[in-house]
Design a protein that fits this description.
The complex is a heterodimer. By secondary structure, chain A is of the alpha+beta class. In chain A, about 20% of the residues lie in helices and about 35% in strands. Chain A has a six-stranded mixed beta sheet with strand order 6-7-8-3-9-10, with helices on both faces. Chain B contains 14 helices and two strands; from the N terminus they run H-H-E-E-H-H-H-H-H-H-H-H-H-H-H-H. Classes of the chains: A alpha+beta, B mainly alpha.
């Protein structure tokens, strides 16, 4: 595999905060159903923005409104300052790569890629040159004369990408670009997509339901739920500091407990969790008052599992903070790591993952073994909604 | 041996399997055999008879043509006459009838295509729940006899028919238009009767089209008309060919419509054929006319089949 490219950090434009694509209060209703509900979003020039959400979250409808296939019920879309509300798809400086690729089956690869340029009345010689260039970029140089049905899935994906990029659009929309590829090819293609995006400098908006894909591809992510944007942020923001229970639960797996704030310090909170049977001490990241109901979320990989009670972080001996006892109920060996389902004394199941660092551990944990679970004070995320 | 086979473990299964294979094989042969027999008895044998008659000469007898084989001095002599065929090219009636039939069929096919394509397109793009209803309406005329429907057109087109009466009543015209017994009436009759045969294959083709291809075309900058011309039209080519052949082939040999609605000074080849058989009782010439129509039609059919085969291979 080629060297892993680093995602471009913040674009190096003169004004990094300028919104290249500005979506304001965008709403789309189909009858009584609100597919996209008052979404406002700024997308910067040159970034890969991933819209992530489950089916029916409105992400595809939002994408189709950007392409011009659906007209908004309310709100505006501006691309590079120009209002797109009434512009038909064939006049927008936007191209789309379809989930099904939508290659024209009766045309050769070359003809497919040339189609967009032909509509603009570009000269034949220039079309030939540009088509050749873009096919080389997607490594499909030798396949110009083939018909789509003579190509493999991965090759079709490349042709679809070339066709969408050949006009150098201001904005490229990708609808589940990798969903039709098998896992190995998908991982490889992710990095290639990032490479091509950086080389051409086109702004990408990617719609995906695959969180791994979104994390790898996206400079920023927008998590959608029920037609609304639940959170926007960098992949690590979204994973480490989810804003809501939905986001915490949707991205990765998480152990979540309801609790009550029992003590608030200047920089830490103590939360009494009945379900957990211990007090959770967490960093103070949200404003909440004593007695308020909150949820604490802890990622499975941030929990220690041991036979003896470990002093986690700066925890004082003897206190039952961030420490619970339980019994291993299930072990799933995944190769690079193992997943343990631990039933704590209150009866709740916790999910813990441990990397398998050693080959053939001396005395691996067994099912029904009694263990202690502990975590650092920075691990729990406190959520108020 | 058979007993041993039955005693062996799995032996009975093997015998049963063989029997099953035998019955499926003979069943397959039976299923394929019935239509083959049908074609053999009702198409190939009559064709051979007609083909054979076309090489005879007419005579006043029963049957009214000369035998091909005669016995002379105890040995058979084969007598092939080309007179029926050469006669077709000496009398201008036949050539002009052939050409007229081809012209009528071609114009009617084009009209069917121009009317049928938008209809098929509209049905294919309509709401999925509406499609069966619309298709039903297309097929509905078949519930009335073909002959009755053509007769009905006489009532509409004749001098004191519905169309002329309405136009005169409205004061648009003062003398009845000569609509009946014109080329126009024949086109109306053929287009009206064969339109469903154009619409149905076109619909079957257009209905399968992927709507996202049109979205892709629009996304790449093609206006709706260009997207139609570059994407929809080329992909519906097979449907256009199928519908056109289904109209063109029967239209060439059409007998009823031109006889009831058409001109009297220019007849179509179907009428020539029937007149030769039943009026002139010249069976050899009638047979030669039939063989030539067949040759005229076999070429487009073979082209159609080649295209279909190519499409099937492409689909694989």
């Amino acid at each position: 595999m080629s060297a892993i490219p680093t995602k471009n950090a913040i674009p190096t434009a003169a004004d990094p905060d300028s919104a290249y694509v500005r979506i304001v209060s965008l709403t789309k209703r189909f009858g009584d159903f609100v597919a996209v509900d008052d979404v406002s979003l700024d997308i910067r020039r040159g970034e890969i923005f991933c819209l992530l959400g489950g089916s029916g979250s409105g992400k595809t409808t939002l994408l189709r409104m950007l392409a011009g296939f659906e007209l908004p019920s309310a709100g505006t879309i501006r691309i590079d300052g120009a209002d797109m509300s009434t512009i038909p798809p064939y006049e927008r400086p936007v191209n789309m790569m379809f989930q099904s690729y939508a290659l024209f089956p009766h045309m050769s690869v070359e003809k497919n890629v040339a189609f967009g340029l032909e509509q603009e009345g570009v000269g034949r010689e220039q079309i030939r040159r540009q088509v050749g260039e873009i096919l080389d970029i997607v490594k499909m140089g030798g396949f110009g004369a083939r018909k789509p049905h003579q190509l493999s899935g991965g090759q079709r994906q490349r042709v679809a990408l070339a066709r969408a990029l050949v006009k150098r659009p201001k904005l490229l929309l990708l609808d589940e670009p990798l969903a039709a590829l098998d896992k190995k090819l998908r991982e490889h293609t992710q990095f290639e997509l990032i490479n091509i995006q950086q080389r051409l400098g086109v702004t990408f908006i990617v719609v995906t339901h695959d969180q791994e894909e979104a994390m790898t591809l996206g400079t920023r992510l927008g998590v959608m739920n029920h037609g609304k944007i639940a959170q926007v942020g960098s992949p690590s923001d979204i994973y480490e500091s989810p804003a809501t229970r939905f986001v915490a639960d949707f991205i990765g797996s998480v152990n979540m407990f309801e609790g009550r704030v029992s003590d608030e310090g200047a920089d830490c909170l103590r939360i009494q969790c009945g379900e957990l049977g211990c007090t959770v001490r967490a960093e103070r990241t949200v404003s909440c008052t004593r007695g308020a109901t909150v949820w604490t979320a802890i990622r499975p990989e941030k929990i220690n599992i041991s036979r003896q009670p470990l002093a986690a972080g700066a925890q004082q001996a003897g206190s039952a903070e961030n420490l619970v006892r339980g019994t291993v109920r299930e072990i799933a060996y995944m190769g690079d790591m193992s997943i343990y389902l631990v039933q704590i004394d209150s009866g709740k199941m916790l999910r813990v993952t441990l990397p398998n660092i050693m080959r053939g551990a001396e005395r691996p944990l067994a099912r029904e073994e009694s263990v202690w679970l502990s975590w650092h004070g920075s691990s729990p995320v406190v959520l108020t909604e | 041996m058979a007993l041993l086979a039955r005693l062996e473990p799995g032996g009975i299964d093997r015998v049963g399997g063989n029997l099953a294979r035998l019955t499926t094989a003979s069943g397959r042969r039976l299923v394929a055999g019935i239509p083959i027999l049908w074609l053999l008895v009702l198409f190939l044998i009559p064709f051979i008879i007609v083909f054979r008659i076309s090489f005879s000469e007419v005579r006043l007898a029963i049957p009214p043509y000369t035998p091909l084989l005669t016995w002379r001095h105890g040995s058979p002599v084969l007598q092939l006459h080309w007179s029926a065929y050469s006669f077709l090219f000496t009398d201008p009636l036949y050539v002009s009838s052939y050409l007229y039939s081809l012209k009528v069929a071609a114009v009617s096919t084009l009209c069917c295509l121009l009317i049928g394509y938008p209809m098929a397109y509209a049905i294919a793009r309509s709401d999925a729940a509406m499609r069966p209803v619309l298709l039903m309406l297309i097929v509905l005329p078949f519930w009335t006899s073909f002959l009755l429907r053509v007769y009905a057109w006489i009532g509409l087109l004749k001098n004191n028919g519905v169309i002329n009466n309405v136009l005169m009543y409205l004061g648009i015209i003062h003398h009845p238009l000569a609509l009946l017994q014109t080329d126009f009436a024949v086109y109306i009759g053929i287009v009206y009767s064969y339109l469903p045969f154009m619409i149905l294959p076109l619909y079957a083709n257009l209905e399968k089209h992927d709507g996202t291809l049109l979205e892709a075309a629009a996304d790449l900058g093609a206006r709706p008309l260009r997207a139609f011309l570059r994407v929809t039209l080329p992909q519906s080519f097979a449907g256009i060919v199928a519908g056109s052949l289904l109209v063109f082939i029967p239209a060439v040999g059409e007998y009823v419509i031109p006889t009831l609605l058409g001109r009297t000074d220019q007849i179509m080849i179907g009428r020539v054929l029937s007149d030769e058989f039943f009026e002139n009782r010249d069976w050899p010439v009638a047979s030669a006319v039939a063989i030539l129509i067949l040759l005229l039609l076999v070429v487009p059919i073979m082209l159609f089949q080649r295209l279909e085969r190519r499409e099937l291979e492409a689909a694989k």
